[in-house]
Amino acid sequence: MNKSISTFDRLMQDTEFKEEFEKGYEDFLISEQICEAMNEMQISVRQLAEKAHVSKTTIMNIRTGDAERISVRKLNSILNALNYKLSIEKINRVR
Asked: Is the CB of residue 25 less than 8 Å from the CB of residue 48?
């Protein structure tokens, strides 16, 4: 019996597609984690912006996934205001 693969699985076999998908997914996760932290702390966009010393627009852009360019300094400030820190983890890629 032939087992067919899903469209998603077939697309994920394409290394270029997979890399783009994973990058977008990582961006989505960051946004979701910030939203979750805001909910846990019961902090509004305005309150977080004031606490992190960034604009409300910056916070809204992160929440909606529209923050294509944000400085590390701003991201750190936002994360610190939410009692989180940025860390870097090495990944192994097969090329």
From this structure: no
